[in-house]
Amino acid sequence: INYQSKVMPHREEQIARLQRELSDLKRHYHQQRVRASITIPELVQYITSHSNEDALVNPTKDNPFSPKKSCEVL
Predict the structure, then answer these.
(1) Which Pfam families match (predicted)?
(2) Number of domains in the chain
(3) pTM (2 decimals)?
(4) Contact in structure between 30 and 22 (CB atoms under 8 Å)
(5) pLDDT, tens digit, for every residue of 5-55?
């Protein structure tokens, strides 16, 4: 009886883990997929149409985090 009390929690954990894994696999199986040949041109078009709003492509002139330029004469 003592042996079963030690084995059962491990087995229950294993069953719970396998049930979660099965649930994840079912969810991934039913997930709709789109071909890369369709999504890549759409992604490129989105990026190019929004590039003027992108702060990494067009940084603002008044960036408060930019290092201050100063010239000191000693």
Answers:
(1) G-gamma
(2) 1
(3) 0.45
(4) no
(5) 565 678 889 999 999 999 999 999 999 999 999 999 999 999 999 988 887
Helices and strands in the chain: count of H runs, count of E runs:
2, 0
Specify if 73 maps to a domain.
Answer: no
Tell me which residue range forms the domain holding 9: 2-48
Task: Note whether residue 9 is domain-resident.
Answer: yes
The CB-based long-range contact list for 10-18 (8 Å cut-off, 24+ gap) reads none
C-alpha distances out from residue 68 to 4, 63, 64, 73, Å: 70, 10, 9, 16
Q: Decide if 7 is inside a domain.
A: yes
3-state class (DSSP) for residue 43: helix
Residue 15 lies in a domain: yes
